[in-house]
Amino acid sequence: FWTQTCVNITLGGLVDGCGADASQQVGSYIIDLDPTTQAAWTAGHVQVVSDTTRVLEARGGLVLGKLVSQLGSVNGILQEGCTASNATINTLRQATAASARDQRRYVYECHSDGTMDDLAAFLIGAGDYHYWGFGGWYSPN
């Protein structure tokens, strides 16, 4: 259902792609599962995201995950709170390195409260296809 909905709205021109919120999670947090079922759930979760990315990427679309370690299964990252920190700078640099390593376009979008320090950290670490958005994810700004 999720894949088909994402593909339909993206290929229909309504959006450029889909955010795969909670795509970084492994195992189910909803119910207790035995280890074998947990492993199968996690593998299925990654497979759905990977399959959706493959379909959309072939048509210029995006699937945004949460972590640099997901790049390959997703072709973009949405960071909900890029702060003025070494962590932000290093994460952006890691995304750039992953793009060069995999020879793929990986989009990285940072949301920030809009302080000059946040913007400076983003600019220090930013690479190709990295974008900065004003207005933090949980901010009245």
User: What is the total tally of β strands?
Assistant: 5
Shape: globular
Radius of gyration (Å): 16 Å
Helix count, DSSP H or I runs of 4 or more residues: 4
Order of helices and strands: HEHEEHEHE
How large a portion of the residues is in β-strands, by DSSP E? Answer: 15-25%
Distance between the termini: 34 Å
**Structural class estimated from helices and strands:** alpha/beta
Mean pLDDT: 87
Fraction of residues in H or I helices: 40-55%
Biggest sheet record:
5 strands, parallel
Short note summarizing the structure:
Helices cover 43% and strands 16% of the residues.
Features:
single chain; 141 residues; alpha/beta; 5-stranded parallel sheet; 4 helices; 5 strands; 43% helix; 16% strand
